[in-house]
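Q: I'm building a small set of examples for a reading group on sequence design. Run inverse folding on the following structure and report the sequence directly after it, with nothing in between.
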């Protein structure tokens, strides 16, 4: 994400001008061209846009085929959809923050009620867009997973993680790993199981530069856990080939997965 910040690239010596960058691009037709992009301080923080600012048009929307579920409602804090052909509930968990219309606790209760009352064989929790929020909101969700014997089993409960699974979403991943039988799919998370989080914004007195510092240590895993991330059992990182064909390799692998039995 930092490679999108031209002043940082300039400071690192990667580009000669902090105000613009030239990119050599190859289109899907194989033709190459050079594009010059300029710095625009009015643009939103890319980190907080999922997957891009709303006024932008992204490639999957232009292909004429349904976009994958992970691109369907990326700005919603949480939502779920039942896939009847696969008897699977897909749960898009994009933010650990209460929605104005339904708290995470209320949503969790509704989710588990649906799972228990319908023909559900798998639950998929997709946290690829989830860059955090409030860890203290996670308790009803984690406890609900623990108590729902129907899907709290290996081969039935899946969590899709990725480089943007961060902060409170990292804590969620650690809790799922520690307290449930979830299998992880995708790519490693964006933080370590034990990490320093939260933020305390401040302004430097002389330069007046706004900054913030993380100040709260989250020990969500065991004290001896020195991993730099949670790695998936099924490694399926995003690829441009999948992106340009509106496919989701991680979800596809989950839908066909069958646990081996003795």
């Amino acid at each position: 994400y930092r490679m999108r910040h031209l002043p940082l690239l300039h400071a690192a010596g990667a580009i000669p001008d902090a105000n613009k960058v030239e990119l050599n691009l190859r289109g899907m037709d194989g033709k190459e061209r050079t594009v010059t992009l300029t710095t625009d301080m009015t643009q939103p923080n890319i980190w907080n846009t999922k997957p891009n600012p709303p006024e932008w048009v992204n490639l999957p929307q232009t292909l004429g085929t349904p976009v994958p579920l992970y691109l369907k409602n990326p700005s919603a804090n949480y939502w779920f959809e039942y896939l009847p052909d696969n008897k699977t509930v897909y749960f898009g968990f994009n933010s650990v923050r209460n929605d104005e219309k339904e708290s995470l606790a209320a949503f969790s209760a509704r989710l588990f009620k649906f799972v228990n009352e319908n023909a559900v064989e798998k639950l998929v929790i997709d946290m690829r867009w989830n860059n955090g929020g409030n860890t203290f909101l996670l308790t009803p969700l984690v406890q609900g997973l623990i108590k729902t014997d129907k899907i709290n089993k290996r081969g039935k409960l899946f969590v899709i993680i990725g480089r943007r699974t961060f902060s409170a979403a990292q804590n969620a991943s650690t809790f799922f790993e520690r307290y449930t039988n979830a299998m992880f799919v995708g790519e490693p998370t964006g933080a370590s199981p034990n990490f320093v989080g939260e933020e305390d914004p401040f302004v430097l007195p002389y330069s007046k530069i706004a900054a913030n510092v993380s100040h709260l240590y989250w020990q969500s895993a065991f004290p001896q856990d020195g991993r730099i991330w949670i790695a998936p059992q099924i490694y399926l990182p995003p690829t441009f080939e999948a992106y340009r064909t509106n496919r989701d390799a991680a979800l596809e692998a989950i839908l066909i997965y069958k646990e081996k039995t003795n």
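The mean pLDDT is 92.
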